[in-house]
Amino acid sequence: MYNVKSKIATEFIDDTEIQETLDYAQKNKNNRSLIESILEKAKSCKGLSHREAMVLLDCDEPDLVEKMYALAMEIKQRFYGNRIVMFAPLYLSNYCVNGCRYCPYHYKNKHIPRKQLSQEDIVREVVALQDMGHKRLALETGEDPVNCPIEYVLESIKTIYGIKHKNGAIRRVNVNIAATTVENYRKLKEAGIGTYILFQETYNKESYEYLHPTGPKSNYAYHTEAMDRAMEGGIDDVGCGVLFGLNMYRYDFVGLLMHAEHLEAAMGVGPHTISVPRIRPADDVDVNDYSNAVPDEIFQKIVAVLRIAVPYTGIIISTRESQKTREKVLHLGVSQISGGSRTSVGGYAEPEPEDSSQFEISDNRTLDQVVNWLLDMGYIPSFCTACYREGRTGDRFMSLVKSGQIANCCQPNALMTLKEYLEDYASPDTKAKGEALIRREIPNIPNEKVRALVEKHMVELHNGMRDFRV
Q1: How far is it, in rounded angstroms, from Cα 297 to Cα 426?
Q2: Which pLDDT tens digit goes with each residue over 250-291?
Q3: 282 Cβ neighbours under 8 A, 6+ residues apart
Q4: At 325, which CATH number?
């Protein structure tokens, strides 16, 4: 039976509750008075239940959908302003013992060359990322306790944090590795990770078990309960996500929100981030095998309703999506994007081997081109990692976000880290656009003392000093 506080996966992700929610939403998708009341409730920025959110997602009344989109952007602006956080993935190893049907890293795939980065390789990769201007990475690995044990991941994190190249430094390492033990999560916490990210792929237990026929990942409960163990191990910030297209999107949308509600109810803090990847072509993976592909119109609505339902969370869109799609969802609530990404092991220091990528990238622009594009749209590309380094994580971060006070930190830090990027890495055109944006944005900092401090630091950044934060 459904129990949001239960630590048992099939109780906090209860199939009967999901089916009843889907049925309720279908019956009420054209109930204008109900939908308008839900939208009115959402204006308080306290979020929505999974059932209320599903009604919005199923609604196909054009004028109400437009209201949803406008509200999603209003909520995003209230919580995160016009800042867009930048990051890049770093693939450490593609050795994997799992049999996941949708991933080219599955152990039966003999086409893909297997590789694990040495610590020397990691130095070369990170230097290349620093030379682009990145400050925040998301580590990715396959699951292989022999070829990629936790000790290797911990050593890699230590190496990454220790690399100082010119003015470059990676200041936040997020980690996307397989579900593991409380003890190992404690080790990751001690290593100084930022967010622990783990995608569920699908919340439908039957589909999950079909898609994961062999390997440790085939254990639905162990995988689904991983976030609880991570938080028990002291990790404050966790990131959820599903791979849209593997299963019916409506089911996974509800499951994703139920997981967020569970973390808030049982652990005291909801997900720091929610990712919305869609399945992409890859070696040994044919997307035509998956009949649940999510069209662009539905995908945009998913992003908008997630922003409305979970207003405090960061929503992440990767280079899986095209420039056109990313531009649309940026206006509907996305707050973090990758730029200049490579999805192969060793793809930054050397040209990316086509047959070693985890999936095809749709947005192949350089980081500078992405930054330039964001500036053209009036966004502040942010390389900020201040909250993590100042201990503003977990419930401390969430309390600041929910009260709206986080903007007092985020906007100044976004501007100062953008200034760093402009001084050290930007093309002349990007630098000119960025400097103009900074001049426009500084007067919008509400606190007079903070505004004066930012103006002082801008001069110091121009003169060669680095790494200021409030």
Answers
A1: 34
A2: 999 999 999 999 999 999 999 999 999 987 654 555 556 666
A3: 103, 104, 357, 358, 359, 360
A4: 3.20.20.70
CA distance 116 to 102: 21
Burial 298-326 (b: 16+ CB within 10 A, else e): ebbbbbbbbbbbbbbbbbbbbbbbeeebb
Query: In the numeric block, which tokens belong to residue 14?
Result: 């209860």
Indicate if the alpha-carbon torsion angle 389, 391, 394, 399 is positive or negative: negative
Side-chain-side CA neighbours of 65 within 13 Å: the count stands at 14
In 3D, which of 17, 97, 230 has the Cα closest to residue 222?
A: 230
Report how far residue 340's alpha carbon sits from residue 221's, in angstroms, rounded to the nearest whole number: 35
Q: How many CB atoms lie within 10 A of CB 227?
A: 26
Domain range spanning residue 262? 77-364
Residue 2 in any domain: the answer is no
Q: How far apart are CA 131 and CA 102, in angstroms?
A: 33
Distance CA 242, CA 372 (A): 30
Q: Beta strands 164-165 and 168-169: pairing type?
A: antiparallel
**360 plus 420 within the same structural domain:** no
CA distances from 80 to 73, 384, 455 (A): 10, 13, 21
Please count the helices (runs of H) and the strands (runs of E) in the chain: 20, 11
* Tokens 């990404």 found at: 341
The percentage of the chain sitting over the pLDDT mark of 90, rounded to a whole number, equals 79
Give the number of domains in the chain. Answer: 2
* Predicted TM-score of the model (pTM): 0.94
Same domain flag for 278 and 413? no
Q: Are residues 219 and 329 in the same domain?
A: yes
Rounded CA-CA distance 56/212 in Å is: 31
Task: Work out the mean pLDDT of the chain and round it to a whole number.
Answer: 93
Rg, C-alpha atoms of the chain: 21
